[in-house]
Amino acid sequence: MRHYDLAVIGSGSGLIVMEEALKHGKTVAVIEKAEFGGTCLNRGCIPSKMLVYPADLIREAQRGERVGVTFAAPKVDWEKIARRMRRQTDVNQELERDLDKTPGLTLYKGEAAFEDPRALRVRMKDGGEERLSADDIVIAAGARTRIPDITGLEDAGYITSESFFGDKFPQKPYDSLLVYGGGSTACEIAHIFSAFGTKVILAVRSETLLRGFDGEIGPFVGRELGAAGVRVLYYAQAQSIRRENGLKTVEFRDARSGERYEVSAQEVFIASGIVPNTDRLNLASAQVETDRSGYIRTDARLATSVPHVWALGDINGRFPLRHKANYEAGILSDILYGTGSLRADYSSVPQAVFTHPQAAGVGLSESEARSLFGEHVRIFRNRYSEVVAGIAMGYSKHREDNGFAKIITDDRGRVLGAHIVGPQAAALVQPYAYLMNAGGPEQAETKGTWLPVQRSMTIHPALPELPAWALIYSQDLK
To answer: Is 357-472 CATH 3.30.390.30?
Structure first.
């Protein structure tokens, strides 16, 4: 059995820890059962954005008449779009080749499982088996799409983000597509294909989209997707699915009324959340504890219940976002090979959904803030139609698509949350993530407050005025 200083299960953000270990002269093993690079590179944020941007262009062209510019119907070169997307995902092959030549690093191309707290067994892709041990083991094995229990689903066939960005990527946009789910992936896929002319049905199991965001975001996005031609079904619980006449027909039950109805589409995209890949790791043999949903329990040091075993990324159940995983990898790198002083803080994790309209948020929602701080909560708002940059883009007070910025503070001015829906929402929210982390112990009175916004100049006319002016000029809504 070969022994290493560090073993990393998964080749996404775990590679950040690997790189730091190699810098310190450690021997490292990386085990990867699929494509190198993790979810983000192969079936998540990177390939999806190669589809989102062309879809955004189509939607913006359709809005051109508002500002006096009319475009002809767009001509979509789907093959070129697909090539550009694959050019990004093919980086995984280059990454694998580079890693294979890295001194001090050994790659194991297979699926790992614990034999005991320090030993791993790897079922190799080529059919063989390898065993190894390590002083420290980092579990960064990610998660996969949760497949709902729907009668006939396997027989009828379906796609997920794993297969869609793999061997089931379509030769052309679907004629019709049923997307089952209401989260980020579902909303982005609905936007992409509706823009390309597909008849999209978005079936949401609950009362709203994007339940992890502030309560005003989901309903707004739902209305705008509906206005763009997406048929949005709420309280839609899939009961069964069958193939007939070249289509896939899904029977739904309305969770409110109990009514049953059917919807047909060329393809069904399952985007009903994720499950961690912990069930494949034999964690019981390592005595690594998980929660009821199977996620590995970690503390602020990314430590598990076993002292030398660590976990980061989707598999620990804290925000399934690549930038969160990268952040954790930086924390863990410091703990293992640096000062050891850093700790993970999840109070200001920014997130964005690249649907149309774009939505983004950081920190507490209004309901969460009121639950924690009660009468000390202050709500500030502004709309795109209230800043010149927004007006120039064709937004007005009388249009339903007039997006907004919503900043939540306490009565001392400390930023508790920021939420934006509309153009460039992700870029506009990001400064508030910085703001919520500004200052230090010596600035306890102003740490995390919006005082720097008040003291700073904001470029005019530009969209950053939207959230800045929400704080500076709008009424404080208690």
So the answer is: yes
> Of all helices (H) and strands (E), which one includes residue 377?
strand 377-383
Question: Would you call the peptide bond into 357 cis, given omega within 30 degrees of 0 as the criterion?
Answer: yes
pTM for the predicted model, two decimal places: 0.92
Amino acid, single-letter form, for residue 360? A
In which region does residue 74 sit, left (phi positive, over 0), alpha (psi from -120 to 50) or beta (all else)?
beta
**Looking at per-residue confidence, does 175 or 1 come out higher?**
175
CATH superfamily of 2-43+87-144+275-337: FAD/NAD(P)-binding domain (3.50.50.60)
> Could you report the per-residue pLDDT of 225-279, keeping only the tens digit for each?
999 999 999 999 999 999 999 999 999 999 999 999 999 999 999 999 999 999 9
The answer to whether 411 and 376 have CB atoms below 8 angstroms apart is: yes
Question: Which run of H or of E encompasses 108?
Answer: strand 105-116
Task: Measure Cα distances from 64 to 55, 67, 130, 329 in Å.
Answer: 15, 6, 59, 43
Type of residue numbered 309: V
Closest CA to 463 of 396, 406, 383: 383
Q: What are the backbone dihedrals phi and psi of residue 120, each rounded to the nearest 5 degrees, phi first?
A: -125, 145
Cβ burial, residue 429 (10 Å; 0-12/13-18/19+): buried
Beta carbons of 418 and 406 less than 8 angstroms apart: yes
Q: What is the largest CA-CA distance in the chain?
A: 71
Cα angle 202-207-209, degrees, rounded to a multiple of 5: 50
Per the DSSP assignment, residues forming a β-bridge with 471 are none
